[in-house]
User: Fold these one by one.
Assistant:
Number 1:
Amino acid sequence: MIYSEKVMEHFANPRNVGEIENADGVGEVGNAKCGDIMKMYLKIDGGIITDVKFKTFGCGAAVATSSMATELIKGKPVEDALKLTNKAVVEALDGLPTVKLHCSVLAEQAIKAALTDYYKRQGIDPEPIVGKVPDREASCGI
Amino acid sequence: MDKRFVYVDNSATTRISEPVLEAMMPYLTGGYGNASSIYSLGMDSARAILKSRETVAKALGAKTNEIYFTSGGSESDNWAIKCAADAMAPKGKKHLITTVFEHHAVLHTAQYLEKHGFEVTYIPVDEMGLVNPADIEKAIRPDTFLVSVMFANNEIGTIQPIAEIGKICREKKVWFHTDAVQAVGNVPINVAEMNIDLLSLSGHKIHAPKGVGALYMRTGINLPNLIHGGAQERSKRAGTENVASIVGLAKAIELATADIPAKQQRLSKIRNRIINELLKIPESRLNGDPVKRLCGNVNISFRGIEGESLLLSLDLAGIFASSGSACTSGSLDPSHVLLAIGLPHSTAHGSLRITLGEDNTEEDADYIIETVPKTVEKLRAMSPLWERILRDEDIDAE
Ligand SMILES: Cc1ncc(COP(=O)(O)O)c(C=O)c1O
C-alpha cells in the first residue's frame, strides 16, 4: 500500500488539530469498533466558517483526510462546506488507496454532522439542508 | 536524540545476512547450471542442493530425504494441508483440525477445503494465546486426516506445546503438521522427538532471501504433489531449483540454530525491558503469554489510539514496526489473533508489534522506550476516543 506524499505530509503535520471552546457546531462520526472516529468543531460567523478544528482516532488516511477537509472549508461560506464531497478531499490529497476511501467519506460526514449540530442549535431542521448523516452505529467501512 | 534506523519487524522479514549472501554468490554468478543437467556445471548445482538438504535436515533432527525445498512458508502450508486432504479423502477422512489463530496461509487453506466438502474444527486459544492439547485430543475423530497447529504465533509470539500435541497425534495415529515459520531459529526443534509429521519453514524470517522455504515430510508419508511438472525434488515438487536461495536457506538455518539459547538469552532481556517500560504507559496491555513467547516478540495494545497512525508516526522517527489494526490488516476487522485472545475491537486496533532480531541492540531498546511513549501521548492528545476513555465511558458497548 502506498500513500501519496501529500497524505504523508498532512499526517506528519496535521492542520487544525484540537477543539474549539464555545463552538457553534460539533459533530462526531465513526466508532471505536471500526477503528475510526472523527470529531469536528466549527465556529461560524455571519455564514462564514471562521474556524474549524478536529480530533481523529484512526489510521493515517483518517488523520490526513480530516486535516485536508478542515483546510478546504476554513474561511469559506457554509454553503461551500455543505458541497464538500469526499471526492474533493481525495483529489486534494493526490489520491488515496482504495481500501482507505472510506476515511474520506468519514471526513465529509464529520463536517455534515457538525453542520447538522449547528442548524439544530439555530432551531432549524438540518435534514433538508444537510441531508441525513449516518449515526455512529453504522457498519464499518461505509 | 537524532533520527535513527531501528528495524524491529523481524517477524515480517529480515535482511539477508552477509554470510548468507556470501554463500549464495557463487550460484548467482558463475554457478548457474541447471541441477538437472548432466555436465559438471549442472552437477555442481545438484551437489549444492544436496548439501543444503543435509544442512536443513540436521537443523531439524530430520533425515536428508525428508526435506523438500519450496517457494516459502505459504507454499509449504498449502502443500501440507491440501495434499494431506487429497491423500486421505479417498479413505473417507475429510476432517481437519486447526486453530483459530493460525497464519492466513493455513486459515485460508482450511477455508478453501471447507468449500470443497471438507470439515474443519477450529480450536480456540486461551486469553494468553495458548492452545490446550486436551482440546486437540477431544476434537480428534476417526475421520480426522490432519492436525495443524502453528509452532509459534507470528503476531503475539506465543509458543505452543508442540511436543505434547505431537504425542497425542502419534498415539491417535493422525498426521500432525506445524507451521514453524516463526519458530525456526528461535526455539529448538527436533521433529523426531516432537512427533512432527509435517513442518513448514521459510527462509526470509531467518536472514535468507524471500521466496524460499522447505517442507519436512516424515518418511512414510507420501503426499501427492502440489506443483506438478519436472522431476525436481525427487518428483515431488516441480520447477527448476532456485539454487542460490536454497544454498542461502541452508546457510541461514545453520547459523540460526547454532546457538539458540544464547540468542534467547540476549533478546529476551532486551524484549523484557521494552515490555516493562512500555507497560508503564497508562491503559496499555501485553498481548500473549509473558513467558511462553518468542524471545524477540513484543505485542502491546494502547487504548484510545489506532495502530496504523502509531506505525506511521514511529516511521517518521525511524522505527519500523507493525500492528494488528484493521487499517494495517487490509480488512475491516483488526487481527484475528488479537480477537481470538479476547481483545475488544477498539483495543486490538491500538496494537503495536515489535519483533527483535539478530541486529537489534540495547540502544535500539533505549530509543524505542524513549520514542513510543511520546508518540502514544501525541496521538492520544488528538484522539476523541481517548477523551471518552478518560471520562470512563464504556467505549466497547457500541
Ligand atoms: C507463521 C507464518 N506462516 C507462514 C508465513 C508465510 O511465509 P512466506 O512469506 O515464506 O510465504 C509467515 C510469514 O509471513 C508466517 O509468519
Number 2:
Amino acid sequence: MKIIEAENLKKDYNGFSAVKGVNFHINRGEIFGFLGPNGAGKTTTINMLTGLARISGGRVKLLGEDYTRNHKKAQAMMGIVPDESNLYEELNGWENLCFCGALYGMERDRREKRARELLEQFGLEDASSKPFKAYSKGMKRKLTIAAGIIHEPEILFLDEPTTGIDVAFARQIRNLIVDLHDRGTTIFLTTHYIEEAERLCERLAFIVEGEIVREGTVEELMREAQGENIVNFTLGGDFNEVKKEFKAVFPDYGYRIGRDSVISVHSPEAFSLLPLVQFFEERGLPVYEAKIARPSLEEVFVKVTGIELKKMQNQKEGRG
Amino acid sequence: MKTWIAFANILMKDMRNYYLKPPNISWGLIFPVAWTLMFFLRSPVAVEVRDLLPGVISLSILFGTTSMLAVTITFERKSRSFERLLLAPISLNLLMLAKTSGAIIFGMVNAFIPVVFAAFLTSLQGINWLMVLTSVIFIAITSTFLGLFIAVSVSQVFEAQTFSNFFRFPMIFLCGLFIPLQDLPVFLQPLSYALPLTYGADILKTAVNDNGIIPVPLSFLVLLAFSALLFAYSIYNVNRKWIS
Ligand SMILES: Nc1ncnc2c1ncn2[C@@H]1O[C@H](COP(=O)(O)OP(=O)(O)O)[C@@H](O)[C@H]1O
Ligand SMILES: [Mg+2]
C-alpha cells in the first residue's frame, strides 16, 4: 500500500530548477531512501512533502489523497527530522520532547509517558534535564529524532540522519532506525552515504541534479548493474593444469586467473555451482571457497550516475 | 481540543522561556519605568501627571510588545526552531495568534506600570477604568501585530530592533502623546492620523481626562482595522517568505 506518492514533483527557485519533476512512492512500512550528492534536491523534496516548501509543479498524495495545496491534515501523520537539529536551545531534553508532543495535540499524560519512554530508548535519561545547547552533536541528533516520533507518526522523514555525527553515534542512530522500522514506522530517509543506503533501505532512488536517475529495491538496482555472473573459486592446486579440459567441459564459461589460486569464472547466464565444484574435485583440486561476486551498490551508483564516490564525500565535507 | 493543546503550550513556552526570564522582564519593564520617571518626575504639578498618563501608557505597551516579538519570532526563525511550528498540524492563523498572545498579555501588564506610579503622585479619581482597560487591550493587540509585521519582514534580530525603532520613535512625537495633534505642523498631521497609536492614545485621553479629540467608537474601529490588516499582511508574508 502506497503511503506517499509524488507525481511529477517540481521545485523552482527563481528560475533555478532544484527538483525537476520527480515521480516516486513510498510503501507503508518500508524504509525508502534518496541517495544523492549534496545539492541534488533531497532536502527540497522533503520540504515539499512536509509543507516547508511551496510546490512549483506536480502533486503529492498521502494514502491516495491529494494534499498538494493543504499540508495541515497530512502533517498530523508525519514526523520530521531535519538535517540540522532545530529544537529549543534553552529547553532541556524533557521539555523539548513534551513541547513537541503538545504541538501534535497530545494530552499531558500521554506526552509525558512517551517522553519518558523515548529518553530511555534513546539512552538520554541522564541528559534529560540538561539544556539542549549543552548536548553533543550526536545527542542532539538523537533527541531530534525522538522529538520527531513522540506523536507516533505514520511516516518519519529523516534528512541525512548520520551526517556530521561521529561513528559510534551514527551506529546507534542506524540501530534506532532499524528498530523503528521493526515497529512498523514507514521511513523516508535521505543520505549521501552509499553504504548507509545499502544497509538500511529496502527501496532506493538515486537522485542527481533534481532528477531521479534510477529507482528500485536494492536487489533490483544491483541486478541491473550486474552484466554477468561471477563466481570466485579458491582452489588447493594449480588451475593451469586443467585449463584445457575446463574449456572443453564448460564452453560457455569464461575464466580469469587471479592471485592466490583464485580463479574467477564468469558467465552471462546464471550458474549451477555443483558441476564446477565436481569438476575441480575430481581432478584433485580441492575447492576451499566458492564465492558469488556481487557488484556493490557503490559500483551500481557510479555506473548509473557517473559520479565518483570520492567526489560525493568531498563535497559534503567541504561544506562544513 | 487538540489544537487548543498546541496553542496553550506555545503560549506557555514563550511565557516561561522569554517573558518571565529575568533579562527580558527587565527589558520589558525598563521602557515603561524609564518613560514614567522621565515624564512624571520632572512635572511636580499633579495635573500634569494625569495629562501625561495616556501617552506613557501607550508607549509602555508599544515598546514592550514590539521588543518581544523581535525575540519570540525573529530569533526562533533564525535558529530554525520556528520550522517546527510551521510543520505542526495547526493552522498558520492559530500559530501566529499563539505566538503573539504572550506579547499582548505582556503589553497589557506593561500598561499598568505607569498607572501604579501615577497613583503615588496624583489622584486617579474620575478615570473611566473600563474604557482604559478596553483601550489597553486594543492598543496591545494593535502594537503586537505591528511588531509581528516588523518581525516577519526582516530576517535578523537586530534588523527587527532597528526597523521597530523606525516606527516607534516617530510615533512618540506624531501620535499626540505629548504634543497635542492640533499643535503639530499641518503637513505632519495626515501622518499622525495614519498611525494606529494616535487613536489608541486618544481613547486613553478621553478615558483619563476626557480630552480626546477623536470619537471613541471611531478610534476603536480604526484600531481594529489596523490589527486586522497588520495580522493579515503578516500571515501573507509568512506564507510567501517562510514557506518558500
Ligand atoms: N531557498 C533556496 N533558494 C534557492 N536555491 C535553493 C534553496 N534551497 C535549495 N536551493 C538549491 O536547490 C538545490 C537542491 O538543494 P537541496 O535540496 O538542499 O539539496 P540536498 O538536500 O540534496 O543537498 C541546490 O542547488 C540548492 O542550492
Ligand atoms: Mg540536504
Number 3:
Amino acid sequence: MDDKRTAFLDRVRMAVQDSEETRIAWSELLAPCDDSARLNAFAQRGPDEQQILLQTLVEQASLLHLQTHLCPTLDQAAQCIAEITLTSATEFTAEPALILHDHPLLRALPLHAQAAINHTPRHWTGNRDPEVRNRTLAASIGVTVADWAIAESATIVQMTRPGQPRSTSLVPSIHIAVLLLSHLTANLAEAYALVRREQNCDSWTLISGPSKTADIEAVMVHGAHGPKAMHLVVVTEPVNDAHAGFAVAS
Amino acid sequence: MKLGQDGDYVAAAREGMGNPCLQGSLRSLQARYGKGALDVWKTLPDPNLRSRVKARRMQTLAHLDRVLELLSQGVEARGGQVFFADNAEAANGYILDLARKRGVKRVVKGKSMLSAEIGVDAVLEAEGIEVVETDLGEFIVQIAGSSASHIIAPCIHMDRRQIGRLFADKLGIPYSEDPPTLTQAARKALREKLLTADMGLTGCNIACAETGQISLVSNEGNIRMASTMPKLHVALMGMERVAATLEDQRELLQLLTQGAALQKLSTYVSFVGGPRRKGDPDGPEEFHLVIVDNGRSRILADPEFREVLACIRCGACLNICPVYGRIGGHAYHSPYSGPIGAVVTPLLHGINRHADLCKGETLCGACRDVCPVENDLPRMLVALRCKLAYGDPGWGVRPHNRLEALGFKIWGRIVGHSRLYAAMLTIARALQRPFVGRNGMIGPLPGLKNGWTAGRDLQPMAEQSFRERWRARQNNNPATADNSRETRHGR
Ligand code: SF4
C-alpha cells in the first residue's frame, strides 16, 4: 500500500477512534446475510402465487411505461418480438435492426419462423465479434434476457456475462427483455439474494422501464439517454431448462 | 460551481424569491415530493427501517478505515484502480494526469455533486479538454453558464421558455417550448458526445465494501452510458458514501429512491467495480475509483457532526424545507443546498465563510422528519450557530459578530433584573410610539432595524405587560386583592 493511502486511512482511523467502545465488532458488521428464507420463498412459489406476482408486475409496469406482453410459449414470444419490430418507429437508423444477447433462451426463440422480419438484420452479441459495438450502434432494438424480474417495482435484473454485454439494453432506441415467469421474484430483497448466490456478479444492473427525465418543468418525458420504449415479454408456460440456459432455482 | 464560492446569501435569496418561475416550481416540488416522502415513511411496512439503517450507517462510519480498505481491495482484485485523495487538488491532479496520459479530449459526466465540490471541470477545461454534463438538468445549467439549484432537479430555476431559447441559441434548433421536443434535441446532441468521449466521469451513489463495487443510480441512462461506452471510467466518491454489505446497500438504495422521488426504484441502478472482463465486448477498459476526503475526516472526527456523513444526498430535506422552498438553491453558494447544504457546506468549507447558511434556516424540524436516515440537521444547525456565537478554535471559528454577542450579554443582564427590565419596557414603549402606523403596526424602520422590518410589519410592544395586567386584575378583584398584595410583598 502506498504512503498516501496509508496516511489517508490512518487519518480516518484516528477520526473514529473515539467510537472504540461503542462500535460493533468488524465480524458483526460484515456478517453474511442469511438468504435461506428468501431463496426458499422464491423456489417454492406455486403457480397461483406466481400469477399474483405477475399481476403486480403488470400493474407496476404500466405505471412506468414498461409494456408487458404475456406469451404462453416461445413461439408466441418470437411472434411478439416480430410485431414490436414491425410496429416501432426507428430513431437513429433508417431501417429496423435487431441486436440480441447471445443467450440460449434467445437462441431457442424461433425468430426464423417469423417471415415478416426475415429481412430485418439480426446480430448476436458474441464475445468474439469485434464489431459488437458498431452493430449495437446500428441496431434499433436490443433484445436481452432478464435473469430475474421484481414484481413490486417492475424491475429486471441483468448480470453482465460473456456474450451478454451492457450496451444491448441501453444504446438501441427500444429494449425488449424476455423473462421466464419462473424467474419472477417478489421484491428487491429476494432478487439480491439471488444475485448473492451468483458467482460472477462483477457487473449487474437493475432496469425499471424506459429511460426518462423530468428535468424540464417536471414534465415526464420518456427517452432521455437510454431506450425510449421498453417491452417485457413474459413467457408464462414452463420452458425446457436446456432452452432457458439457466437453471430455475431449486 | 466550486464549493465555497463566496456570495451574498441575502442578495441571492432575494433574487430567488423574486423569480416567479422558481417560486412556481418550488411550490409544486414541495407539495408533491416533500409531503409524499413523509407519507411513504408513515406507511413503511417496517416502521423501524429508517432507524435501523441509520444505526448501520453510524456503525459503518465507526469502521470507515477498514470499510474503505475492503472496498479498494475488491476493486483492485478486479483490475480497477483506487486513488485516495486527501483534498480537491489531489483528486483533480490525479484525474488530470490520467486524462493527459491517455490523451483524453472529451469527458462526459454523469451527475456528481462531488465533481462540483472539487471543481474538476475547470481543471480539465484549462487543459483544453471538453467537459460535457450529460444529465439533462446539469447539461442545461452548464450551457446556460448557471449552476445547479437542487440536488436532484438541477435546473428547477429555469422554465421551458428560457430552456427553449437556450437550446435555439446553443444547439441551433428551431425555438420550441415543448419538453419532449427539447429533450429529444438534447438526447441527440448528447448521444453524439456520449458515444465519442474518451472518459466517463461519474459520482457514486452508494458503494458496497463487501462486494467491492460502486452503485450508480439514474433515471435518464446517462450514467450507464458514461460508465459503459468510453474507454475510461473514473468514479468520484466522497469517502463516506459506502455501505458495509450488499444488504445495507439495498436498504439505503430503497430509502434513497423513495426519499428522492417517491420511486420504488430508479430506472437504472448499476453495480460496477472494475474494467470490462477479458472478452467482454463492452464496458470500460480502465476503471478508476477516486475516494475523496476533502474535509470529511474532520467532520468524522467530531461526534457532534459525524451524523451528517450518514447523508445519502436524496434531496428530501430540500423538498420540505420552508426556507429552501422560498429562496431556492443558489443562495447556498454550494452544490449542496437546502438544509443539508446549510450543515455540510460550512463544515467542508468554513463555518465563518458560510455563516449565513445556518442562521437562515428556521429550525422547524421538518428536515429531520423527512430525512430517510433521520439526520438531526436542526441539532447540527444549532451547534453551528453556537460555534459562531462563541467561537471554536478546534474548527477555527471566530465569534461571528462581537457586537451582537455584547448585545446579548447586556440583554442577559437586563432580563435577570425585573426592575431594570420593567424600566426598559417603559422606555421602549415611549420610544416606539412615533413609529406605530395607522394600522397599529410598526412599519419599515431605518438603520439596523431595517433588516427586521423591511419585509414585514412588527407588532408593537403591548402597552401593558402580562405581569402588569395580572397585578391590576388581582387588585381590582376584592377576593384576591389582599392575597396578591401578600404575594408581592413576600417576594
Ligand atoms: S440530510 Fe437526509 S434528507 Fe437531506 S439529502 Fe441527506 S439523506 Fe436526504
Number 4:
Amino acid sequence: MSIISAKDVKKWYGDFQALKGVTMEVGEGEVLVICGPSGSGKSTFIRCINRLEQHQDGEIIVDGIQLSNDIKNIEAIRSEVGMVFQSFNLFPHLTVMQNITLAPIWVRKKSKSEAEAKAMELLNRVGIPEQADKFPGQLSGGQQQRVAIARALAMEPKIMLFDEPTSALDPEMIKEVLDVMKELAKSGMTMIVVTHEMGFAKEVADRVMLFDDGQLVEENTPDEFFTNPKSDRTKLFLSQIL
Amino acid sequence: MNKNKFNFAFWRDVRFLKWAFQLFVLFLVFNSLRGFFSQAVANLAATNLPFSWRFLGTTPGIQVSEGFKTYPESGLEAIQIGIANMLRITVSGIFFATIFGTIMGIARLSKNWIVEKSTTGLVEIVRNIPLLVQIFFWQAVLISFPRLEEADRGQHFIHISAKGIAFPWLDPGESSWLFGFWFILSLYFTRKVFKWRVSVLEKYGREAYPTIYSLIFLIISNILGWAGAYKLVGIFGYAASIVGNLFDVFPRIGIQVLFISVGSFYAVRYISSEVKRTRSAENRGVLTDDDIFKLVITVLLLLTLIVGMFLPLGVAISDFLLGNEAFFKSNWGLPQFFQGIQNKLDWNYSGAPFSVSYPEAIQAGSSTFTNYSQDVGKVMTVGYFATWVGVVLYTSVFISEVVRSGIMAVAKGQSEAGLSLGLKRSTLLRLIVLPQALRIMLPPMGNQYLNLAKNTSLGIAVAFPEIVSVGQTLYNQEGQTIAVFLIWMAFYSFVSLTLSSIVNFYNKKLKIVER
Amino acid sequence: MIEANTKVDYGVVKRWLKENLFSSYSSVVLTFASIFALVALFRGIISFIISPERQWTAITYNLQLYMVQAYPESDFIRVWITVGLVIVMFGLTWGYNSKNIRITINNAMDKLIKVFVVLFLLILITPTSVTTDKVQGIQEEVLQFNTRLLFLGYVTILLVTVIFIKFKFSDKTVLRDLLSFAYLGFLIASIWFIKVPTVVFDSTNVRVQDQYLPVASSTTIPWTVLYFVLIGFYYLGKSFNSKQVIALKRAIPAFWFLLPLLVVTWIYRKPDFSLVSIYSIDLPMVAVGLVLGYISLFIFNQEKNKKYQKYFFYLTLALFLVSLFLPILRQLKIIFFLYFILTSLSPYISNTKENSKNLLIVWTLSISIILFLMRGGTSETLIEVPGSSIYGGFALTWIIAYFGVLLSSPLGVLLALGRTSKLPIVRIICTTFIELVRSVPFITWLFFGSVMLSLFLPRGVEFDEVVRAIAVTAIFSSAYLAENVRGGLQSINKGQFEAADAVGLNTIQRISLIVLPQALRAVIPTLVSQVISLFKDTSLVAIVGLFDLLFVGIKVIPAQSQGANFLGTVLENIVFCAILYWVFTYSFSRRSMKIEKRLGLGER
Ligand SMILES: Nc1ncnc2c1ncn2[C@@H]1O[C@H](COP(=O)(O)OP(=O)(O)O)[C@@H](O)[C@H]1O
Ligand SMILES: [Mg+2]
C-alpha cells in the first residue's frame, strides 16, 4: 500500500502554473529523491504534501487522509508529516531544547519531562546532545539543520520531507547532515528528499524522480536514473549537474 | 472546484471557518457602532440641539484673536480662519525645523567635542520635556517682557513686548502675484541650469560649476524680474482669460462633458494600469498602502473635477440637503478659477512687487492702551510665538536624530568606497552620501512633519486660534460637538493623506534615481 | 604600578585637546564660540534663578499640591505607604537583579573630581549681580564676595577629600551598588542640613518676608526611614538571589503589575468596605473557585478522565455564557470567565501532579487577589476632596500613564495582528481604526472623551473624568503601538510561519509562541519610546481641565490669591514641572537604553 499518492496535482500562482499535473505514489518506508532544475516546482510539490501550499486540482492522499479544506485533516496531516527546510527555520528566540519540545508539548500534549527526555534522545541521535541549551544563533549551519531534523522527528511523523536540506550549507557541513539523513533512511522512515546530492541519491534512494517545468519527467531506480536514463531531459540535466 | 468531492461537514471547511469568523467580527463591530450611533441620535434628540451642519452657514458671533479676519461671518469662515492659521504655523514650522534639525544633526556628528556635547545636551533636554510644558514656558517668557506702554509709541525696527514681537514685513504691491509666479518659474529654470551643468560635467569630465552657475542664474533672473520683467508672466493671465471666455462662448454642458470625459479617461486608464501592475506575478494582487493612497488620490481628484464642473448643481443639492442658503454663498467653479488667475496675473499691473513696512505702536482705538498697528509691519502674537517656537524646537530635535542616523547609516562604508575612487570630499557628499542618506531620511522625516502638523493643535493651550481652538470655541457657542469633531477628523486626515502622498511620491523618485 | 596609574599623563591630555577641540582653524573658532555661548547661557540661567523677582517659595509651599493635589492631609499616611511600597519593590528588584559589579575607587573618584572641578569653575563664573528693573537698568548685588569664597572653600574641601581617597585607595574596588547607596545617603543627609526658602506667616496669619528654614521633619523623617527601607530590601532581594529563590523571578514583575492596582483600589482610596460582605461574599467565592479549580486540575486532568476533558470544557464555556445573562453577582461571572480560560489551558500547562498543585495555588491566589481588588475598587471611598476625583497632581500623571500603558498594550497587539492578518475584513476594520485614530491629534481625542463620549453612552451612564481620560489615552496610544508592533511582525521571516505550520501549531499557538515573542523583542526600543511619549502626552489632560501636575503648575498655583499669594508666578512653576518631567523621562530613556543593550547581547 502506498502511503502517499498524488493524482494529477495542479497548482497555479495567479496566471502562472507551477504544477502541471503530477501523478506519483510513495510506498511505506520508501526513500524518494526528487531533483530538477530550479523553478521546476519541486518545492511547490512537496509543500503541497503537508499543505503548506494548497493544490487546486487533482488529489493527494497521505496515509489515508484526503487533503482538503477540512480543518481536521489539515491538523492531522501536519503531525503525520515532518518537514525540513533549506534555510532551517529554527525559532531563534527558543533554545535548541525548546525548539524540539515545543510541538510535542503543545500539539501532542506531552508532559514537559517526557518531551525533554525524547528530545535528548533525538539530539543524541543527530549527534549534538551538548548543544541543548544554546540558542540557534550560536550554532553552525550543519548543527542547526540537524536540530531542525530533530525538531521534525520529535513529532514522531510517519513521513519526512526534506526541501534541499544541504544547499544552504558550507561543503564541510554537508556530510554531517547527510549522515543523519542516511541513518534515518536506514531506520525505515518514509522520506521524500529534494536534493542535488547525487551521492546521497545513489546510496540510499529507492527511486529518483526528475521534475521539469511543473511536470514529472522521469521516475526510475537510482541505477537506471544515473546510468541509463529514459528521457533526454534527464540526460541534459545530469550532464549539467555532474 | 467541486466541493462535494470530499465528504466532510461544511463547517469543518477552513474557508467557511475563515469567513464565518470574519462575518462574526464584522457583525460585532457593526452592531456596536450602530448601538453607539443610535444612542447618540437618541441622546441628541432628547436635548434640544439635534445634530446639524447649519452652524456652518450662520454667523457664530465669536471673535477670533488672529487670522485673516477677526469676526467671521459664518461658521465655515471661522473654520477657514482656523485652518489658515494652522497651515501658516505648520508651513513655516516645517521650514525652520528642517533647517535647525539639519544643523543640529550635523553638529552632533561634529568632531569638535564641545560642539557635539552641547548639541547632544540640548537634544536631551528638549526631547524629554513634554511639548505642552515647553509651549507654556515660551508663552511665560514672552509675557514676562515689559508691557507695551505709551512710552513705546511710534515706529520701531524690531520691538518685543508682552504683546508679542513686532518686526518689519514686506507689503505686497499690485504686481506681487506676477513676481511671485516669476520667482517660482525661476526656481524651476534654476534647476534646469543645474542639471545642464551637471550633464556637462559628466559628459566632458571637466569641472562645470553647477552650483555657481545656478546661483548666478537665480539671482540675475530675479533681479530682472523685480525690475519689471515679471510682466512677461502676464501671458498666463491672458491665457487664463481666454480659457475663461470659452465658458461663455461654448455651451457650458459641452465643456463640462469634455473635461469630465478626458479626466475620467485618464483616471480609469491609470487605475487599470495600476491594478494590472499589482496583479503581476511578483506582486500577486497585494495592494500596499502606497497603492491604496494613489488610488484614493486619483478617485478624489476625479471627484473634485466632477464636482468642480457641476458646482452649481452641487450647491443646489447641498442647499437642499442642509437646508441653508448661505453655505456656499460665493460663486465657485472653474470659470471663476480662471477669472481669478486672470485677475492676479494681469500684465497691466506695475510698480515694485513688494515694499518694506516697519511696525508701529499706536493708541488702540479710543482706549488708552497701546497696541501694534495692524497695517504696517508684522506682529508675532504671544500665542503664535509660543506655539511656533515650541513646535519648531521640539520637532527639530527629532529631525536632528533622523539626520544623524541617516548620515551615519551611509557614511561609514560608502564614503570610504567613494574616497578610494578618488572623489573630492564635496563631490563625495553630493553624489554619494547625500542621495543615499536622503533615501533613508525621507520616510521618518515625513513622519516628523506629520507630528509637527498635529502638534500645532497644542496652540489651543496658549490661545492661538488654530482649527482645534476655533472648533472648540464654535461648539461652545453652538453645541455641535460631533459636527466639529468630524470636521477636525476630515481636516487632519486630509493633511496626513496629502503629506504622506508627497513623501511617497519623492520616495518613489529617489528610488528610481538609485536604480 | 600605583604611581604609573595615578600620574597624570599630560601627553594624553594634550593629544585629546588637539584632536577634539583644536583640530583645525574652524574647530578652534567653534570651540571658543561655544565656550562663550555656554558661559553666557549659564550666567543667564543663574541670574534667572537668583533674581529677587523669582518666588521659588511657590514650589516649596505647594509641594503637596503638586504631588497629590487636594488629598487630605489627615490621610497622608496612605501616600507614604504608597511611596514606601514602591521603594520596597524597587529595593527588592534591585537587590535580586544585582550583578555585583565592582568598580575601582580610582575610577569612581575620577568622576567625582571631574564633577567638582566643573562645579568650582561654575562658581567662579557665576554672576554677582542681577538686573532687577529692566526698564531703568537697576542692578542688585546678590552674591557677595564672601559667599562665593565660602562656596569655593566647600568645593575645595570636597575636592581635596576626593583626591585623598583616590590616592589612598586607588587599588581598591567597591561594589557599584554600595557607591550608589553612598551617594544617595549623601543626598538624604543633606536634606537634614540644607535650608530652603519657606513662606512664613506671622501670628495674625499675614505673610511676612520669606526665610531660609530647615526642611520640615514631616518630610525628612519619612525619607530617611525609606532610605533604610530601601537598603534593607536591597539586601533581602540579594539574599533571595543567592538562595536561588527562582519564584521571585516571576513574582517581581507580577508584584510591579499589581502594585498600582492595589494602590488605586485600596491604599489610595480608603474604601468603606464591610467585613461582613467579605466574609459572606468574597470568601465563599474563593471557596467556590478552589473547588472548581480542584475539579478541573485533579479530576479531569487524570489520565483515565482525559476523554471527558473536552465535554467538561464545553460545559464550562456554557456555564460562562449562561452566567452572563443571569442576575448573579458580577464577581461570580468573572470567576466563571476565568474558569473557562483555566479549563481551556489546563491540558497544556499542567501535566504532572506537582504541576497541578502549583497551578491550583496560583489559581486560588489570583481569584483571591482579583476579588480583593474588586472589593476595594467598588466600595465607597472615605476620602473627601473638592472636585470629582481623589487623584490629582503628579499621582494623577502616573495613574494615567500606568493605566494607559496597561490597557493599550493588549489592544495595540491585537490591532497589529488584525492589520497584518490575511483575513480581509478583519484587516480593513483594524486598518481603518488605526488610521482614523492616528490621523487626529491627541488633544482632539481628549476633547472627544471629555465632551462627546457621554453622547454615545446610554443615559445615566457617567464615567469619572479620569476614567474617560484614561480610556481615550489607551485607545489613542494603542493605535500607535499597533503600528510599532506591526513593524516587528513584518520583520519576521516567512520561514518562521512555515516552520510553525509544519510542526503542527495552530493559528493561536503560532501567534503566541512563535510570532509575537519575536516581533515584540524586535521592537522593544520603539515600544519604550512610545511609552515615554505617552508619559509626556499625559500632560495634555491639563488642557481639558484635569488636575494633573501641569495643571497645578500653570493654572492652580498662579491663581492662588489667598494665604501665601502666588498670583502670576508662572515661570517658576513651569520650570519646576519641566524639571520633574525631565528627570523621569530622561532616566527612563537612559535605563531602557541599557536594557536594550543587554537584550541585544543576550540574543546572540
Ligand atoms: N508564492 C509564490 N508566488 C508566486 N509564484 C511562486 C511562488 N512560489 C513559487 N512560485 C513559482 O513557482 C515556480 C516553482 O517554484 P519552486 O517550487 O520553488 O521551484 P523549485 O523548488 O523547483 O526551485 C517558480 O517559477 C516560482 O517562481
Ligand atoms: Mg525550491
